[in-house]
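Dock flavin-adenine dinucleotide; give full complex structure.
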Amino acid sequence: MDLHTIETDFLVAGGGMAGLCAAIRAARQGLRVVLVQDRSVLGGNASSEVRMHIVGADHHGMRKGIRESGLIEELRLEDAVRNPAGQHPLWDVILYEKVVAEPNITLLLDTDVVGAEMEDSGPTGDAIPRPPRTNRMYEFAGKPGRIRAVRAVRQITQDEFLIRAAFFADCTGDGRLGYEAGADFRIGRESKAMHGESLALDVDDIHTMGSSFLFTSHRTEQPVPYTAPPWARKFTAEDLKAGRPIRSWEYGFWWIEWGGQHDIIKDHATSIRHELYRIVLGLWDYVKNSGRFPESANWALDWIGASPGKRESRRFLGPHILTQQDLQQPRNFEDEVAYGGWPIDLHPPLAMDDPASPPFESYDLKRPYAIPLRCYFSRNIENLFLAGRDISVTHVALGSTRVMATCAIGGEAVGFAAAYCMRNSITPAQLVASAHHVQELKQLMLREDATLLNTRFDLSLNKAHTAQITASSFQEPCRPENLCDGLTRDELDPDSGDLLRSHGWRSAPLAAGSPAWVRFDWRAPVEVRDIHLWFDSGFQRQLTLSADASTRATVIRGPQPETVRQYTIELDGRPVISEGDNYQRKRVHRLAAPMRCTSLRLVAAATNGVPEARLFEVRLH
Ligand SMILES: Cc1cc2nc3c(=O)[nH]c(=O)nc-3n(C[C@H](O)[C@H](O)[C@H](O)COP(=O)(O)OP(=O)(O)OC[C@H]3O[C@@H](n4cnc5c(N)ncnc54)[C@H](O)[C@@H]3O)c2cc1C
């Protein structure tokens, strides 16, 4: 092994959706970032290795208008346009491209984080004394500490890395880095008594949700016979009658789940993988050969996951542990940095070994809930952030927070917070202890397209706010003055998608040769450098990459029709920006040098589909 030492600002362990967003956001905020990912592709469960579709607070588009903004939206829009057929390998490439495009990120693929070095040089990893695993919920409480460096290994090139950083983020799902560092964590399910959660158990236990294999299949011209190997499981209709319906088979069955009663980390590569293979092959045998699905004759398997997708293992403990109550009676956390809205979706650990029980219990949430920054860092390791499914939540709350769009915006928040801590030479705990720091962080996030449920953008930070705003035309109630109200999406009826309150401008239908425009006039010259624009990208629909036919039917793969495609920006009548092929929601145009002007006009010439120009917000900095 060759040893390489790297000095950086921020080390992100794990390149799933949470780690990827943490790394990109921190890099765009100016940090030097090292992103260590143990696989050859990025995206974790959303990658082509697992192929789970990303969902979030809009619950597959059923809660309209609340789709996540920020980096995950940028990625989804990019994917919809550049991957029209919705193929997972192309999604992998888009994620890879986004990371390597960031000059501040050093990406180490095929590299495992395997250890931590602590400031006090105390024991790490397995050398830390820990309670034995029993059938009760496992809780580890360690010592206070600070990580100095992580050790990572890339076996395939025989390289070892010692990576020193100021801040670290554990986005590994299983919490490998936090484990090595001695961060406090739990595995298993809490009892009712622990947090007063009505959905918790009477007696806590060590069990988790299980892991899964997805598969994909396609229709062929000819019949394709299938013979299962003798070691595949055998299924009957009786085994599937409790909520495991087979309606189509192009995208496997999410309820192929096993291992929650085992050690989800230690048994991953042995019994869990083996049983998942037995289940997939047995179910395909049932589809093809039971006689119940004659229409499957011309279908062939084309891919089976080989790395079990995990839902749950370690959950670290931060200064706040998010609970069922925080989800069902949402709180206005001062340090809110993310939100969720997926139902509380709990899977019994026995999963397919208990065919009499349904594969999940789901409890709808009336409205989205905020998640505080205190769930995204360790309570005892002072420079360790957390993002993804290993954040500080109870088993019941994980039922909702684990979905990947929620993981992604949490990761992005961690990227912001790490950059903020670095700039101000403070720890995450010091950040949340100061109302001033928390406010500044949230304003920074809102400026870059984060959505916070209870925090409004400070209008005084927007130079456009002092202008008189006029437009070529508008449709009530989408008036031009909405462009500086600090809100970057419309308020929609969550069920019907009808407009409840407009926060943007809509022109009259565009006509050939007569584009629509909005104009900002100031009495005295203002200095403009950065022009931030927010366009409509169709938050009333879901947008996700999925192999599932019913999900695909609701998604537009291509530019979203609501988005302005072609526009120019003029300062004092002089064109300074010209864009011909926009499909993104958030655009930032940085002028080569600051310019003083008394007017700015945005001229929209074409959209990607709808007749009128739509714009949510214009901010000038
Ligand atoms: C079958 C199934 C169905 C699901 N359904 C949905 C759904 O429909 N929609 C949805 O949004 N979510 C769904 N989920 C949940 C969701 O996929 C997970 O909760 C989510 O992936 C967690 O995100 P993460 O970034 O924390 O972890 P991951 O996606 O697992 O990413 C973590 C990454 O870190 C890497 N890593 C691990 N250890 C190390 C190490 N030591 N060094 C370097 N890298 C490391 C891993 O390889 C992985 O790539 C489902 C999960 C499963 C298994």
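Observed: The first helix runs from residue 17 to 28.
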